[in-house]
Design brief:
The protein has about 500 residues and is α+β, with helices and mostly antiparallel strands. The protein has 4 domains: about 20-85; about 90-245, no CATH class; about 250-380 and about 485-499, Sandwich (Immunoglobulin-like), CATH 2.60.40; about 385-480, no CATH class. Helix content is about 40%, strand content about 25%. Strands 8, 9, 10, 12 and 18 form a 5-stranded antiparallel sheet that branches. Strands 13, 14, 15, 16 and 17 form a 5-stranded antiparallel sheet that branches. It has a 4-stranded mixed sheet with strand order 3-2-1-4, with helices on one face. Keywords: Membrane, Transmembrane, Transmembrane helix.
């Protein structure tokens, strides 16, 4: 009897609570199966399922075991309590794919932009790097927004942020693929770029179907801003990669000069000072890829015959001098070597001087002494070389040199270093490039050859020389490689007379 009385007492209290509490309105499911829950005209939550609805009701103070069919508490609009069209796995899969694409794009843009932002030589190239990093940050925010947009959309502009992320991916991957099409070389980045490009098309198709731009206050202005941002990124890429490294002047000036000779008091020799100078008179820093100086003595046959220039056909063919009374009899190398060696660099206005002393016997039979200096330089605003690699010599006659060892080759020393373009978009869309310098020769003379190419030197492999030459020509133009040379002559008779 006492228990019955207690139940009678509690029931009116519960009825009173239900009468005072506003009724909960459950709206019909939207296109994704999500049902809005409102109280007094205000949306207080959204639910995918009955259990989801119960969580919303608990937050409103309703008991956990509330009867969802109680019309005094819950009103179902258009669809009853059994209508829950949400496809959980499809929704979660779409959310995962959307976030994965944005996060992968964030990682790629940050990885591409960081080397330029912190290490590029020019201001424009650094700005390009920072733009990529900033775009990566936006992609990270878009990934978080995708979690809300594909979920219950509690943030009004989450869909617009995801749309910006998808557009950034489309624009940047378009730039990457455009750069890749210039050479069409397979790289590890290519599958990622193709995957993200396809993902961006899927994401935009999905977002257009959802009409996410409707919540944007000024959709036309938004579209114009995104288009201008894409145009700015493409223009800045073209400016930093092509125009600026081409417009800045690049000059390396060489001089060679003989000094006043001196006699050796103890030996029958004459000491002839010789000064070489290399100066960067341009506006951009320069790498010295390879250099060579050469001093040789020239002997000649003389004749009073004045019937015409001696050897004029050969002179025209070789670009040498033709003289009326002199025919070159021969020449012999007196001194040869490197001026600074591979990997030396010069800033604008900076010069490097090397002084030598040439020793020749007093009874020398040479008529002229000639000194030549040749330098191959590369613009530093086009690329960055791993100097620790390039400055290391690899003699071909040492077995420990591995792929550089070549006992059947002529005696040579190999220098090799990786070169990276100063616009990292080009690096990630092409195979690695190498600076290769070969020194070879005999006891009488030596010479060099050089190349920038994707070929990694291996003494046991023969590359396709025709294709390699074409690539070398392209890379020399791309990295701004130029050759400079100078020469000077002095009369041995004049030297002896000045002693």
């Amino acid at each position: 009897m006492e228990q019955a009385r207690l139940r009678v007492v509690r029931s009116p209290s519960r009825l009173s609570f239900m009468e005072k509490t506003p009724r909960v309105i459950v709206e019909p499911p939207d296109s994704r199966g999500l049902r809005a829950v409102s109280v007094g005209g205000t949306v207080v939550g959204r639910a995918w399922s009955p259990s989801d609805l119960r969580r919303v009701l608990r937050g409103l103070g309703h008991p956990e075991d509330i009867d969802l069919e109680d019309r005094r508490v819950i009103v179902w609009r258009e669809a009853g309590s059994g209508t829950w069209p949400d496809r959980t796995w499809r929704r979660r899969t779409a959310t995962a794919v959307m976030m994965a694409g944005l996060l992968l794009s964030m990682v790629l843009l940050t990885a591409v932009g960081t080397p330029d932002a912190v290490g590029a030589l020019t201001f424009a190239q650094r700005i390009t790097g920072f733009l990529f990093i900033l775009s990566g940050a936006v992609q990270g925010l878009a990934a978080l927004a995708a979690l809300d947009h594909e979920g219950k959309r509690q943030l009004k502009y989450s869909g617009a942020v995801v749309l910006v992320g998808a557009l950034i991916t489309l624009i940047t991957e378009g730039i990457f693929l455009f750069a890749w099409l210039q050479e069409r070389e397979p790289t590890l980045y290519l599958p990622v770029c193709l995957l993200l490009f396809a993902w961006s098309l899927w994401a935009l198709w999905r977002l257009v179907q959802q009409q996410v731009w409707r919540v944007i206050p000024h959709p036309r202005g938004f579209a114009t801003g995104v288009a201008l941002s894409g145009l700015l990124a493409a223009t800045n890429f073209a400016y930093s990669a092509v125009y600026q490294p081409t417009s800045a002047p690049f000059y390396v000036t060489l001089t060679a000069k003989f000094g006043t000779p001196h006699t050796d008091p103890a030996r029958p020799f004459v000491h002839v000072p010789l000064t070489f100078r290399v100066e960067n008179t341009g506006k951009v820093p320069a790498y010295i890829l390879v250099d060579k100086y050469l001093v040789y003595g020239r002997s000649a046959d003389y004749s009073k015959d004045a019937r015409g220039l001696k050897g004029w056909k050969k002179a025209l063919e070789n670009g040498t001098d033709a003289e009326l009374h002199v025919t070159e009899k021969g020449s012999r190398t007196i001194s040869a070597g490197q001026f600074a060696g591979p990997g030396y660099w010069l800033h604008p206005g900076e010069g490097h001087v090397k002084e030598k002393v040439i020793q020749v016997p007093r009874s020398v039979e040479y008529d002229l002494l000639e000194a030549t200096l040749g330098v191959v330089a590369m613009r530093m605003d086009r690329g960055k070389i791993n100097l620790l690699q390039l400055q290391r010599a690899h003699p071909s006659w040492h077995k420990k040199e591995g792929r550089f060892y070549c006992p059947k080759c002529s005696v040579m020393t190999i220098y090799e270093g990786v070169v990276r373009h100063n616009n990292n978009v080009i690096n990630v869309t092409r195979k690695p490039r190498y600076v290769t310098v070969l020194w070879y020769g005999t006891k009488e003379d030596f010479d060099y050859s050089y190349a920038i190419s994707s070929y990694k030197f291996n003494a046991r492999m023969d590359p396709d020389l025709k294709e390699l030459r074409r690539e070398i020509e392209r890379e020399e133009d791309r990295y701004g490689v130029e050759s400079r040379s100078t020469s000077t002559r002095v009369s041995v008779a004049a030297l002896m007379a000045s002693l």
